[in-house]
Amino acid sequence: MVFLTNEGASSSSSTRQWKYDVFLSFRGEDTRAGFTTYLYKALEQKGINTFMDDKLPRGEEISTELLKTIEESMVLVIVFSKNYVESKWCLDELVKIIECREDDQMVLLRPIFYNVEPREVRNQLGNFGIALANHEKEFKDNMGKMQRWREALSKAASVSGSHYEEGYVSNG
């Protein structure tokens, strides 16, 4: 799992206690039944304590608990897929992920581009642009939220990550 390494991290990273090694952010309908579940199982088999949103205790408010879990995770993996940006929850989660990374340089950000091009995410092209235009109609009175979503997408997609395309994975 090369993409999980933190080359260049200072030795102070060992002093911080993390609840999870990895937090997986993904659009369930796109990747839960295949790619993300496979990734989760592979990480767990390697002894990497990984959070996937099916671990939330029943009855807890998902947003508060999930945001806290992001803060308690060392590696934040974002699986960008075709419909990721259609989910307002995924976008809010992404904003929190970027905030955590910017607030703590020990937090690692690892994007995976699942059958999408990094430039589509970074520049909000194709499905990403269409979905954001649809969100803008709903949030016309809250353009600050839209701006945070756009900035988070651009920042996350500017980080070197892994690109998965129809059975082929490339890192870089």
UniProtKB/TrEMBL annotation:
Q: Which residue range or ranges hold the TIR domain?
A: 18-172
List, in alphabetical order, the GO biological process terms annotated in this UniProt record: signal transduction
Name the InterPro entries on file: TIR_dom, Toll_tir_struct_dom_sf
Query: One Pfam family, short name please?
Result: TIR
Q: Which parts of the chain are coiled coil?
A: none
Identify the stretch annotated as signal peptide in this record. none
Query: Which keywords describe this protein according to UniProt?
Result: NAD
What is this protein called in UniProt?
TIR domain-containing protein
Source species: Castanea mollissima
